Amino acid sequence: MESECRCVLSTDSFEARSPAVTLTGMSDLLERLRGRGWRLTAQRRVVAEVLDGDHVHLTADEVHARAIERLPEISRATVYNTLGEMVSIGEIIEVATDGRAKRYDPNAHRPHQHLVCSGCGTIRDVRPQGDPLAALPPAERFGFAVTAAEVTYRGLCPDCS
Amino acid sequence: MESECRCVLSTDSFEARSPAVTLTGMSDLLERLRGRGWRLTAQRRVVAEVLDGDHVHLTADEVHARAIERLPEISRATVYNTLGEMVSIGEIIEVATDGRAKRYDPNAHRPHQHLVCSGCGTIRDVRPQGDPLAALPPAERFGFAVTAAEVTYRGLCPDCS
DNA sequence: TCCTAGCCTGGACTTTGTCCAAGTCAAGAA
DNA sequence: TTCTTGACTTGGACAAAGTCCAGGCTAGGA
User: Which residues are involved in binding Zn(2+) (chains A, B) (predicted)?
Assistant: First the structure.
């Protein structure tokens, strides 16, 4: 279901490794965090590493479980705090596709929507054509200042259908 | 967090409709439930009554609170069970707009989307133009059999902006 | 009126998320 | 390099939302 990320490197090796495509995004993230005056702790580094990749939509608990593999003493509270902070500064996106646990999407700097499998829950990032906001006529806005539209497409993935 | 917002007048005043319309919808629902072989208990009747109306998006707890006013001994478990059953047979819709408690929307037989105030949480039913599904090109479907698209518009309501 | 499958109840339990006091440490200053 | 300090982390308690279950109740058919 969840895309298994093969980039399981140690915390230390992380910033020293070659600039592979997936890593660029992460270095950018860590640099941006430092630029905001964040202290770069091992915990924050690990949370950022765990969230690296495309089509990554982990719950806080999943992030914690993967973080523990690299940094066994990291606490649940720290994972929640770090995720919350990253969301509040717009570095990652909170996704609520099922009314259960929130999921966290590191792909915050490229506008996209989500395609969810009704069978297994797999989520893919997708880019529909046009601007979904444009489909809402003024008469249907009830005086709201509408600024965003989130679309969740649903269906069965190849494995479930 | 729930609406301090005065733009949510009473449910009834909104579309200036006649009371008859409302009641018809409810009778229909109860009739449909009976038609499915449901035993019509006082508890189910009360849950259906509480959910009646336009732009109604209550949490399970809110449904329970209102149900208790009419039937003090109704239990939380019964409310959850009844809501779950109504959702599973398609008579009401589950809405997850904020990653907190699910909300329940009785307007299941008219296709619509939701407009949510980022300030106070108020939710309105809206009808965008066109079919949002059509905006997702085959190349972006990853082999999924896509069957539905849920759109959540966000912005500030007149009172919050 | 009686019977019984289906429904309801209260409470225990799980999952998800928040809060806090006390200890730890990253990074700038000396 | 060492020191200092305020930001960060920890573990545990707590809260909110939802699920499960044994036992009692009842709608509706016989």
Answer: 117, 120, 157, 160
